[in-house]
Structures are given as structure tokens and as C-alpha cells.
Amino acid sequence: MPTTNDLPKMFPPQFAWGVATSAFQIEGAAYEDGKGESIWDTFCREPGVIADASNGDVACDHYHRLESDLDLIASLGVDLYRFSVSWPRVQPLGEGAWNEKGLQFYERLVDGLIARGIAPHLTLNHWDLPQALQDKGGWNSRDTVHRFVDYALGIQRRLGSRLAAITTHNEPWVVAWLGHHEGTFAPGIKSRKIATQVSHHLLLSHGLALRALREAGATAQLGIVLNMAHQMPLTDSAEDLAACKLDDARGRRWYADPLFKGAYPAEVIAELGDDAPVIEPGDMEIIATPMDYLGINYYSRALSKASGPLTEADKPCPRTDMGWEIYPDGLRDLLLVLHDDYDLPATYITENGGAFPDATTDGRVHDADRTDYLLTHINAVGEALAAGVPMAGYMVWSLMDNFEWASGYAKRFGIVHVDYDTLERTPKDSALWYRDLVAACRARRTTGA
Ligand code: FCB
């Protein structure tokens, strides 16, 4: 078991430390200052889709608490802050008119970060598509690809020169698969054919946006964020190994192969048959436009079993409150697989963290399980670095407890506790631990120790 003291010397001085959030999960102010509706506003109104029947109307009220939240981020001593822009807040219909008040909010956010010495890492699409675009077909429509490029250029014009990084999409797999195949996330569609077309349009819009942003003179680092589990066979039987290979192609490689090799995995295209996406000439070259960085969100491993569904007994590791197995070695091994398969640019862990059932005692949250989770996973990143993976930074999910999508507010991922009655923020023990770790890593920058 690694200890906290082992960590700082595993990371080079320039390695960047951060915390992450997304707009819909924290902002609230869902119907204020000219914001348009997002697909998540609409989805939350459908009975039964959100575990606690909650929504993002107030969330953490970050929209009204911007200055104190910026101070909170600064109190952690981090190098960067990863946040997302709510597209319908800045362009209510997803095309046409811009909403000045929305743009001013993100301007205050970016300027406030810079004033505090924190690098702004902006994500364009963390899932909250304008409902007006969904009404015209959403990500299933090729036209949305072009609306997204215009949106990216609008953000570039207003904020671009002040940003350290722009991420096009957060976790396209979630948008495509959970949103359009399983239907458990907005917009709640259940069609494999639509889901694969959506995944293609997301990747295409990423490539086109990268090209347009570069032409517009973007100085920020440009990239995408993919969610990945480390895929493992349940046993070493030939059947489970084959199942694992196919699951890995359906998940990790469906997104990473086009981005780095310009082609979808042939075995998945074959398996999809008529459900394979429509791909126009030139699309794959656009998708493979070189990136400045890759972001990986890692939470757990995923097991493959050839016969029958996985049972609870198949998952022996301790779990988080989401029921996800805690498996830090998977993070190191995943990074090694990616390094083997692709010519990786600078790579960031853009999300990593755990939901645990926190209890507040005497105004403190003693979340030793979360600190252990972070410690062991940061150690895994250090091991990947030592093995030659070009790791550039690590971001905790999340800065604070927030709206965890279909799970509502019951699952707490924050290193800062949020009391949803008073909206008061209280740094948990894990936040204080992370602050001290970042300080120890920063100290090595000046002493070179
Ligand atoms: C990721 C999402 C993020 C958060 C974490 C727990 O899939 O990007 O918004 O919900 O999971």
C-alpha cells in the first residue's frame, strides 16, 4: 500500500493538479438571465428517470456563488480547474443569438481563475445540449455537428485567448450509449442505430471544431475527454478472453481508434450490420485531426464474461457508493494499453474519484475511504508515468458534491461537502489531504527536491 509521502517524488515539477466540475451538475439558475432549456432540464421532468426525482434547477447554486466558489478552489492550491460551459446558457437555441449575460458569467469565471493563478480548462459539451437542437434531431442530425462548430467558435471569440485548454466533448460514449441506446440519460432515446450515428457525429464535430478553432488562431491546448474502464476477462478461459477483446473494441477502441488511427474497429462495424453509422467521405480524416492532449476519465475496471450476465459474486473488490469496484491497478494498466496502442499526446486524468456515503460529525467529514481512493489512483498514475506514459496532469472528480445525473443528489463525489438545505460548503478531510499533497508537489518546483 503506497503512502502519501511516496507520491510527490513520483511526479515531475510541471505535472498539473486540478479539480473538475460540470455546468449542469453545479450551476443551478436553470431559468435565469436568458438561459435556454437543455435536454437535461427536460429529461429531469420525466417521471422515474432521476432516482430522487430531483433536477438541476438549484443544484449547488454555483451561478450565484461564483466568487466564493473561486475562493474555495483557490484554497486548495490547485494549478487548474476543469469546468464546462452550458451551451443553452450562452446560446439559448443552440444557433443564432448569443446570450450576453451567459457569456458574462463565464467571463467572470475565467477571469476569476486567472486572477487567482489557476489555469482555466473549459469543456464545450458536458452533455447539456440545447433542447431546441434536440427538437431538430439532436446529435442524430448531421446539422448539429455544424451548430457545435459555430458554438465552439463563439466561445473562442469571447474567451479563447484566456483559456489554457478547450475540450470538445466529455465522454461521447455516455452521450451516445446511455443517452441514445439505454435511454437512462438525456435525451432518453433507446435505439442502437441512433446511438452509433450519434457517436459518429460527436467525433466528427470534435474534429471539425479542432480545425475551425486552429484556423481561428486558438492558443489553448485542444483535445477530447474519453471515459474508459480497464477491460478484463473474468477468467483466463479462451471464451472470456475473446469476450474481453470484443468489449474493449466496443468501448475503448470505438472512440480511440478513429481519433488516433482514423478507423472504427472492423469487428464492431461488422457486428453492427445495418446499425453501423453513415460515414461520409472525408469524415474519418477529420476525426483523426491531431490533438494537443487526451483526457481520460477513470473510475473502475470492467469485467467481460462470455456466458451470461455478470453477477455480484463476479465482482470481488471493495465498491464505492455507486457499486463500482475500486481497482486502482486498472488505471495504470489502462494507461499502459493506451500508450502501447497509440501515439499519445500529453495525457491528463480529467476525472477520477469516488462516491461514498459521507457522514458529517462536528462539522467535519472524515472521508478516509475517499482519501484512500485518491491516494491509490494517484499512485497508479505515477506508476504509468514511470513506465513512460506522457502523463501531464490529474484532476479530482469532483470539487464538490453535486447533481449526479440519473442518481440525483444521493451520490456524493465531492472533496467538498455541500449541505443541500443551506448550500453551505465544507471541505472534507480528503480536500485537506489533496491540498497538502498539491502543496508538497508544488514545493518541489522551487526546491527541486
Ligand atoms: C462521469 C461524468 C461526470 C460525473 C462522473 C461521476 O461519467 O463525466 O459528470 O458524473 O462520471
Mean pLDDT: 98
For the sheet with most strands, the description reads:
8 strands, parallel, barrel
* Number of H- or I-type helical stretches: 15
Low-pLDDT sequence parts: none
What's the N-to-C terminus distance? 23 Å
Arrangement of strands in the largest sheet: 1-2-3-4-5-7-9-12
Molecules bound to protein: beta-D-fucopyranose
- The number of strands is 14
User: What is the multimeric organization of the chains shown?
Assistant: single chain
What structural class results from the helix and strand content?
alpha/beta
Q: Please state the CA-atom Rg, rounded to the nearest Å.
A: 21 Å
> Any idea what the shape is?
globular
Order of helices and strands: EHHHEHHEHHEHHEEHHHEEHEEEHEEEH
Summarize the topology.
Blueprint: E1 16-20, H1 23-26, H2 39-44, H3 66-75, E2 80-84, H4 87-90, H5 100-115, E3 119-125, H6 131-134, H7 142-159, E4 165-170, H8 172-180, H9 192-215, E5 221-227, E6 230-233, H10 238-261, H11 266-272, H12 283-287, E7 293-297, E8 301-304, H13 328-341, E9 346-351, E10 360-361, E11 364-365, H14 368-386, E12 391-397, E13 416-418, E14 425-427, H15 429-447
Parallel strand pairs: 1-2, 1-12, 2-3, 3-4, 4-5, 5-7, 6-8, 7-9, 9-12
Antiparallel strand pairs: 10-11, 13-14
Helix pairs in contact: 3-5, 7-9, 8-9, 13-14, 14-15
This protein binds beta-D-fucopyranose (FCB).
